[in-house]
Amino acid sequence: MAKRMATPALAGFTDIFSASSTDGERVAEVALGELHAPDCHPFRVTDDEAMTQLAGSIRDFGVREPGLARPRPEGGYELLCGNRRKRACELVGLSAMPVIVRELDDDSAAIAMVDSNLQQREKLLYSEKAWAYKMRIDALKHRGIKADCNSADEIAAQTGDSRSKVFKLIRLTELVETLLDKVDARELAFNTAVELSHLDYDEQFTVVDAMAKHGANPSLSQAVRFKKMKQAGTLTAEAIDGIMSEEKESPVSEAKITLHYRKYFPPDYSPKQVEAVIIELLKAWRETQTASA
């Protein structure tokens, strides 16, 4: 029986940034103009309050922890970790920052970038987590490691997200940018977005158009109906528009219908239609009880 390859655990800060001269690594002051963000970098760099605080710390004390970079074939360095520190250095007028220069293949670079940023960043957007988790698991798969469950467990242990949530977050990478931005802005509920991620891009854009037309976001119940109609092959632009035009039920009543009753009804039934059928059944049941009394 072939021996199963172990899934690498998330590296700790010391593991990622410890430089070993025997491995050909070096710590160097590198000009900011020579440091470039990776093409696939899921972590945003914004000039917010946290950036102002970081810039103040660097102005007063310097860059206390070096970044992590690897040489680029075309020259300069790919800055895997330290892009926020680089921006803070620019804000306070520095021209260079310390980095650990390390030779890394693409998969190792992706894993190091994700692990270091997950360790160091306290607040992450849904989209940042989604793409980071996906990149780490994809890199391990590319190495031939069956990493889905084990890597999800490692991510869960480090971040506090459950394994189920890790996989739900990865589903968000299937969303069109407009919907993903709404999740980041807390304008679209997380679980609703996960359900919408099962639609193809054209269907998602149709949902976006319907949202703009009706001035409303889909509820969880509506998103579940979209997914079930998609699976049944009955989801059309007209169906999406019709469902989005419905008057919204309260979140509590919709959740109860979704969890307890929805599986017994066609996917295109609205909460009101479900309620109407249940009421008719109860009336019929009451009549039988009265007749037998």
From TrEMBL:
Keyword RNA-binding carried by entry: no
Domain called ParB-like N-terminal: residue spans: 28-118
GO cellular component, one term: chromosome
Classification via Pfam families: HTH_ParB, ParB_N
GO molecular function: DNA binding
GO biological process terms, semicolon-separated: chromosome segregation
InterPro entries: Chromosome_partition/occlusion (IPR050336), HTH_ParB/Spo0J (IPR041468), ParB/RepB/Spo0J (IPR004437), ParB/Sulfiredoxin_sf (IPR036086), ParB_N (IPR003115)
Keywords: Chromosome partition
Family according to the record: Belongs to the ParB family.
Protein name: Chromosome (Plasmid) partitioning protein ParB / Stage 0 sporulation protein J
Organism, as annotated: uncultured bacterium contig00005
